[in-house]
Known about the structure:
With 326 residues, the chain is mainly alpha-helical. The chain contains 17 helices and no strands. The termini are far apart.
Amino acid sequence: xxxxxxxxGALGRLLLAPPLRHVGFAHLGFPGRDxxxxxxxxxxxxxxxxxxxxxxxxxDPEEVERRLETVASDLRGFAFEGVAMAYTIRDALPFGGRNxxxxxxxxxxxxxxxxSYIGIGFAxxxxxxxxxxxILPDLEGNPYHPTMSWxxxxxxxxxxxYFDAARWxxxxxxxxxxxxxxxxxxxxxxxxxxxxxALWFVHxxxxxxxxxxxxxxxxxxxxxxxxxxxxxxxxxGGAAPEELRELLERAGEDAPHVSQGAVFAAKARSxxxxxxxxxxxxxxxxxxxxxxxxxxxxxxxxxxPSGGDTEPAYEKWRAGVRxxxx
Length: 326
């Protein structure tokens, strides 16, 4: 059988997944490429790439779902993340059709709602801003929509920082605000939460490298960066309890932001129906509670959107969790 034709030009670059080696830490030159956690963490972007490939190349959604079921439970959400990214791109293109992302997120990806939003953010980094206007699917019936849609902006920040650390981490560049959910002033903050998650990967889960990198950012940005670190440390894993306790100490007055990120990660894992051992270990180290109690705390602080608010319900929710640790 001959080689399958591959799309070319700008559209081809949009629809093609990067080779797996191109998401590896060594290829990207990350300072954490030689850490003991590097290989564990690299499996996450690899799962995203596999999901993206299936979402772009496989026409039958049921076949995509069958393939997703073959992914290990602790990585399956990341593969859904990649499919959500692919479907978002296909839905956004003029000739790409509609509703793939909605059907995915109201169907098989419902337990992975949080990561699916992040997948939408990955698509945003590859689409021109005029196409963002209708990028969020109508998820009526999902209790976390649209409040948690800010995770798409988080995903946008993560993607840019992961693949262009020189600009967004070393250069500490800030994004142009965008009126996401009517709150352009909050857009850079949600973006920084994603940059914080990327720092966990870039530094191979080494708390000293993460803390030093955050210390080079302006003071006003550090709290949201620390929140992203806490989320990644619990959801992705890679550090021992004593290292996580040192991380919390290094955060100083921003430690409640680390714990808040940890709680959100535990909630997301709990909602997915599978809590890996590394998540259980990490959330105990960063919050003093198990994943079940952290999920209960998150639910208790949840805030519904209301008209006229200048602060997004998402941030009010985060603030409520932080108060528990202040």
